[in-house]
Design goal:
The chain is α+β, with helices and mostly antiparallel strands and 370 residues long. Helix content is 26%, strand content 23%. A 5-stranded antiparallel beta sheet has the order 6-7-12-10-11. The radius of gyration is 21 Å and the shape is globular. The relative contact order is 0.12. The structure holds flavin-adenine dinucleotide. The site of flavin-adenine dinucleotide has 34 residues, from β3, β8 and β12. GO terms for molecular function: FAD binding; UDP-N-acetylmuramate dehydrogenase activity. Its EC number is 1.3.1.98. InterPro entries: FAD-bd_PCMH, FAD-bd_PCMH-like_sf, FAD-bd_PCMH_sub1, FAD-bd_PCMH_sub2, MurB, MurB_C, MurB_C_sf, Oxid_FAD_bind_N. Cell wall formation.
Length: 370
C-alpha cells in the first residue's frame, strides 16, 4: 500500500481519481496480472504531470498504462502504481492534414475518424489496440507502415528535466518496434501530432497481402476495410468473446540478424526440413535504410520449430489457434502460465535454428530468463 499522506496528496490533485478495484488483469488485453499499489486515473495532461512529479519525488515506482495491449505483468501484489491517462481530445484539419490527439484517445478511433475524413497515412495501422500515447513508444507498425512515417511532434512530460514540452519525432530515435521511451519510461507521451495526406488515398502500399502492385495508392476506406478483415482472420482485432485475441498481439519481434546468421538458419532448416521448406524461408531487408541486415519471420520459425497454431492443444495458455506469434489466455491463465509458454517457444526456436527470439511486450515483475 502507498503511504497514506502521499495517497492523500495524489487524490487531492484536480482531475485525479483513485480506481480502488483495478487489477492488471482488468487493465491488460492478456488479462493476467495482480494488483498495483494504487491505480490513478488522470483526466487532464496537467493532472498526469502532477501525479508523475509527485511519485518521482517520493521515489515511488509507477507505470503508465494505456490499453494494456503490450504489457505482461506479474501475478499477485505488484509493487508499483498504475497511472492511467484518460484525456482523449482529438482534432483533425482536413485542409492541412494535421491531426492532434491526446494520449488517452483510443488509437483505432483516431484511425477510423481520419479515414472517414479522407485523410491518408495511418490506414494500414487500422485495428491496432491501445491508446494514442503508446503508439510512438514502440513505433507501432503493421502491413508495411509505421507511425514514424507520419509522426511529426510529440508532447512529452520529461521526468528528468521536469518539463512539459513538444519535441520533434526524431528525438525518439524511432526504429523497428523501438523508441527510446520503450523500457526506459524516461518521459510520458501526453499528445501527438501527425501529418496526414489530404487526397483521400492511402500511402503507397508495399505489403503483399494488400496489393499485387507495390507502390499503388488506393482509397483509404477500402484499405482500412481490407486491413481489418486480414487482421480479424489472424485474431489481431480485440474481441472479448474470442480467446485468440486475449493476447499482447505479436509476442516476439521478428529477429533482425546479419546475413551470415540468416544463411546458417536456412542451412539448419534445409538439413532438418528439406529443400522445399528451406527455399520458402522468409528473408527480407531489415528496413529500407538497413539493407545489410535481414529480418526473419518469428511466426514462420515458431511454426517450423514444431509449435503449430493452438500449441500445446489444451491448457490455460496456448498459442492462438489463428496465428503462431500470439500467446493467448484461454480464460484462466496466470502471468506465470504465459511466461512458461514463452520460455518453451523461445527455447524450442533456439534449439532448432539457433535464433534468439526477443519478446515484444513490456514485462513488469517477470523475466524470460529465470
Ligand atoms: C490483438 C493485438 C494486436 C496487436 N497488433 C499490433 C500491431 O499490428 N502492431 C504493433 O506495433 N503492435 C500491435 N499490438 C501491440 C499493442 O497494441 C501496441 O503496442 C499498442 O500501441 C500498445 O498500446 P497500449 O495503449 O495498449 O499500451 P500499453 O500496453 O498500456 O503500454 C505499453 C508500453 O507503453 C507505455 N506507455 C503507454 N502509454 C504511454 C504514454 N502515454 N507515455 C509513455 N509511455 C506509455 C507503457 O508504460 C508500457 O511500457 C497488438 C496487440 C494486440 C493485443
Amino acid at each position: 500500500m502507498l503511504d497514506k499522506s502521499l495517497m492523500q496528496q495524489l487524490t487531492a490533485i484536480d482531475g485525479v481519481e483513485l480506481d480502488p478495484a483495478a487489477t492488471f488483469a482488468d487493465l491488460t488485453t492478456l488479462r493476467v496480472g495482480g494488483k498495483p499499489q494504487a491505480a490513478l486515473r488522470c483526466s487532464q495532461p496537467e493532472a498526469a504531470v502532477d501525479v508523475i512529479r509527485a511519485l518521482d519525488r517520493a521515489g515511488v515506482k509507477f507505470i503508465v498504462v494505456g490499453g494494456g495491449s503490450n504489457l505482461l505483468v506479474a501475478d499477485g501484489a505488484v509493487d508499483l502504481v498504475a497511472v492511467i491517462l484518460d484525456f482523449d481530445e482529438v482534432s483533425m484539419d482536413t485542409e492541412t492534414g494535421v491531426v492532434r490527439a491526446q494520449a488517452g484517445a483510443v488509437w483505432d478511433d483516431v484511425v477510423a475518424r481520419s479515414v472517414q475524413l479522407g485523410l491518408g497515412g495511418i490506414e494500414c495501422l487500422s485495428g491496432i489496440p491501445g491508446t494514442v500515447g503508446a503508439v510512438p513508444v514502440q513505433n507501432v507498425g503493421a502491413y508495411g507502415a509505421e507511425i514514424s512515417e507520419v509522426l511529426i511532434r510529440v508532447r512529452l512530460y520529461n521526468r528528468r528535466t521536469d518539463s512539459d514540452e513538444w519535441v520533434p519525432a526524431s528525438d525518439l530515435e524511432l526504429a523497428y518496434r523501438y523508441s527510446n521511451l520503450k523500457f526506459t519510461g524516461r518521459a510520458v507521451v501526453l499528445e501527438v501530432e501527425l501529418q496526414l495526406d489530404t487526397e483521400g488515398l492511402s500511402r503507397p502500399l508495399r505489403f503483399g497481402q494488400l496489393t499485387q502492385n507495390p507502390g499503388e495508392r488506393r482509397p483509404v476506406a477500402e484499405v482500412r476495410e481490407q486491413v481489418l478483415s486480414l487482421r480479424r482472420g489472424k485474431g489481431m482485432v480485440l474481441d472479448p468473446t474470442d480467446h485468440d485475441t486475449w493476447s499482447a498481439g505479436s509476442f516476439f519481434t521478428n529477429p533482425v540478424v546479419d546475413s551470415a546468421l540468416a544463411d546458417a538458419v536456412q542451412a539448419k532448416v534445409r538439413a532438418s526440413l528439406g529443400d522445399a521448406t528451406a527455399d520458402s524461408m522468409p528473408r527480407h531487408p531489415a528496413s529500407p535504410s538497413d539493407t545489410d541486415r535481414e529480418k526473419l519471420s518469428a511466426a514462420w520459425l515458431i511454426d517450423r520449430a514444431g509449435f503449430a497454431k493452438g500449441y500445446p492443444g489444451s491448457g490455460r495458455a496456448t498459442l492462438s489457434t489463428k496465428h503462431t506469434l500470439a500467446l493467448t489466455n484461454r480464460g484462466e491463465a496466470t502471468a506465470a502460465d504465459i511466461v512458461d509458454l514463452a520460455r518453451t517457444i523461445r527455447d524450442g526456436v533456439r534449439e532448432a535454428f539457433g535464433v534468439e527470439l526477443v519478446p515484444e511486450p513490456v514485462w513488469i515483475g517477470l523475466a524470460l530468463d529465470e
